[in-house]
Amino acid sequence: MSDTVDVTVWADLKAALAEHIPAKRLIDDPLRTLAYGSDASFYRLIPRLIVRVESEAELGEVLAQCHSRGLSVTFRAAGTSLSGQAVTDSVLILLGRAWRGHEILDDGAAIRLQPGVIGARANQLLAPYQRKIGPDPASINSCMIGGIAANNASGMCCGTAQNSYRTVRDIRVILADGALLDTADPASVADFKVSHSELLAGLERLSLETLGNAALADKIRHKYRLKNTTGYALNSLVDFSDGIEILKHLMIGSEGTLGFISAITYDTVIDETEKAAALAFFPDMQSTCRATIALKQAPVSAVELMDRAALRSVQDKPGMPEVLKTLPDGAAALLIDVRANSDQELEARMQAVHATLEGLKTLEPLVFTREMATYELYWKIRKGLFPAVGAVRDTGTTVVIEDVAFPIERLDEGVAALTEVFHKHGYPETILFGHALEGNLHFVFPQGFEKPGEVERYQALMDEVAQLVGVEYGGSLKAEHGTGRNMAPYVELEWGSDAYQLMWQIKALFDPDNLLNPEVILSRNPTLHLENLKPLPAADPLVDKCIECGFCEAVCPSKDLTLTPRQRIVVRRELARLDALGSAASEAERQRHDILLADYDYQGIETCAADGLCATQCPVGINTGDLVRGLRHERNLGQADMARRIGRHFSGATRVARGALNVAGAGQALLGERGMTAVSGGLRKLSGERLPQWTPSLPRAASIKVLERAAKRADGGRDKVVYLPSCATRVLGASRDDAEARSVMEITLALLDKAGFEAIIPAIPGHLCCGMAFASKGQFDEAEHKARELNRELLAASHNGRYPILCDTSPCSLHASEHLDKRLSLQEPVAFAHDHLLARLEIKPLDERVAVHVTCSSTRMGLADKFVALARACATDVVVPAEITCCGFAGDKGFTTPELNASALQGLAAQVESCSAGYSNSRTCEIGLSQHSGIPYRSVLSLLDRASRARVEEKAVAGA
What we know:
- It is built from 41 helices and 28 strands.
- By secondary structure, the protein is an alpha/beta fold.
- Strands 15-12-14-13-17-18-16 form a seven-stranded antiparallel β-sheet, with helices on both faces.
- The radius of gyration is 30 Å and the shape is globular.
């Protein structure tokens, strides 16, 4: 669309919107428009203008300004859609932080959610009530409520009974003309009935006409007996006669083409507490499908089908049963999930499953597991199948997922026929998995579009799949992923002309100018699904397997500031594509390359925390931080000598750092906080932001003499532990205004002594560094040198691993553990305190409300639960702030790129305002947390020390 609009129109639109919306939220630069040109589908459309809205009023203004110019808009929540419904070449509307509101209703029986709330967050809010929302898509940890409702996403357990259509209680929607309807507000409903009587009358008329067409009404009922998101929710016309109810339910699954869902109220469902799962293996697909049909009547929560190719793609993952590697070709499996509210009920349901499958041949005895780690592993593997398949594709190809549903009674023959079609068109590598209980299957296969004939081959496949599933079997071409652009050309084929024309009438009633997400769901373009295909060129082996699913984005600390991991990869791919053109590149392409490269320095590299949290969410473990560190290495090659000098004189470097803290402290005493902030900010500005930013939470310099004193003490009767203070704790002491005046080193040594340990200090503690400070800057050579140096000293101090090692800083512990000799047992503060100190101390929990920040390194090491358990052992009330993942301080970025830290910690202060203090396990993180929370953050070892005293037997040992 944008190619047909005069360029001055876009400038005029931006200027008009700037009168109502801050300029920083009006985005039209080449880099960020490219970054938002992709969603999780295999399409790419680059928007001309991106608007990040923070209120209904702003949204209404955007709609009005675009409508007056005839410009279309597309709404985007998390961008995890798979069918191309969240991309546009016109105006893209993003949700800002203000759209994350929620309200628990009726003691958890319902919940009102704004569209920016992540699905998993909604369930977290409902957990105390043992409730959850009905929809449970595989992307629930990253997708947002707006997308869940607008796509009528379902998932593993919800089937058709608990999807958004069936569980919506009320909805708040803004239509194309800017009108607002809140069905939970009687006054709003009454006003709407007056202002939009023609719209409601038109919907009621369509309902009557549909009910009067018996064949069409029966077809609609049949289609929604299955999972179905192809086209509009025509079942609203046969399920309801009132215009408001019809409108409410039509909005579900409308993919932003009928209006904007500003809030939705769900009737929640019971979250059964007792859970078990089993993998049932069958010799062939036919017997697997027969078992599925039998289980339809059993008391199961979910039945997930995986064919042999799907199982092969995950058989080497840690924890998977060894039997997967020995299954014959053609075998298949069902992941059977059973849930209940009591042990007795769960046992009865498991026995019912066994009885149901009795007489059906399985390759292995059916065994349920209630062990939570194994249960969660099974589901993590199942949820990661689509991206995992994408990760084994050839570089340069995309991955296509077809989302169909067959009538359950014809599942076995439908699967056989569909498999034959894929083989016929040359897709033997296709894998099959899905929500078998609903006849909902996903076929996934790699697809290249660059080579001659590939687009035509894909089109021929899709034509035959559509005919087979939609017509011959009366199934759904899109069961739960939404129609999008991918299936829009086939809507009429599946539904027939009567239903198709009915959909166009619905569209005309809501959006007569066709400005809301045009070409999505309904399109007159028969080749739409073959256009605007996303290029995926090789960019770097570290990230080439990324399929841009967006699972990583929810935990990224820079997501509200610059780019996300997915977007960093998108831009690197475009740079690689332009580089590959070489001399064939046009002048415009060369200029575009240079602009992208220049802007990427800040947007992609400088503001990346490189914390690795993205890898914890990525189904194939891509750590975009590794990519960024590699780019920093290339950028900082000229600083290698300086890095080497600092590394080889590290004691002196830390002394200089402590001296700088003393100077800063003197400046603060002289100028005051306001004056110091002004002077520091001025000097930083004059330096081109090369000087670090002073912050009021900057601590005192630590005294390293405490280590010298500890090294002189020895007690042969005590258990020994090597204490490794990180360079951060050797430099950064206690905060100036904190009641806790001791450094982390003092606290750690006192705690070890209290617990009856003798602390062994390495021979040259002031010189040691794990190397992370250098690696984060891309100075890999010096990082390796420092790691080798540390390894040598720790082997000596621990007597070649005889004694355990405690490092007082979590990120350093993680980095060091990846480089140390296998004989060394290194633990970070939370793990050591939880596993070794709690049992040796008498604990009296403090009657305080305290906050806990689980660092990214703790999360990556799987220590989040231990962290919270440790805090709860030491305090009566523990707050874990929601949606605060990495703090963004990232070593020194809190000083050099303070806006990253500020952005990552938005919303923290409000969540911890009633807390006496916060606790973490990284001194640098604690600086930023203190700055942006309004409360002091300290080492979690301080909390343990305050809540504990030496056991009597430990005192006796100490005095012996």
